[in-house]
Design brief:
The protein is mainly alpha-helical. 53% of the residues lie in helices and 0% in strands. The chain has four helices and no strands.
């Protein structure tokens, strides 16, 4: 299966690794030239997305650290971890809206 650039970006922001299909003799690659994004870039993008979802200022170091503390050690690959994150983000967003 091949993904368009937006789909790859969304998958990478969620912590998934997007791999290119290797070409075999007689079979054309589904996505020629697709190279996986280096891993160190993903957590920063994910953290920025969490800060925005929490309604905080992405330039605020306290907001960044707060959102970093929400991330489970294993990342967000597990559906339960992602579901558990939403109520905490909503609570942060509500506090940010109140002032």
């Amino acid at each position: 299966m091949s993904f368009d650039p937006l789909q790859r970006e969304c998958l990478e922001a969620m912590g998934f690794t997007v791999l290119a299909l290797a070409s075999r003799p007689g079979v054309e690659a589904a996505s020629p030239g697709v190279v996986p994004t280096p891993a160190p870039e993903r957590p920063d993008r994910l953290l920025q997305a969490l800060v925005r979802a929490a309604g905080r200022d992405p330039a605020d170091p306290v907001a960044l650290e707060t959102c970093r503390s929400l991330l489970p050690p294993g990342g967000l690959r597990d559906a339960r971890a992602r579901r558990a994150l939403w109520p905490r983000l909503r609570a942060l967003r509500a506090r940010a809206a109140r002032g």
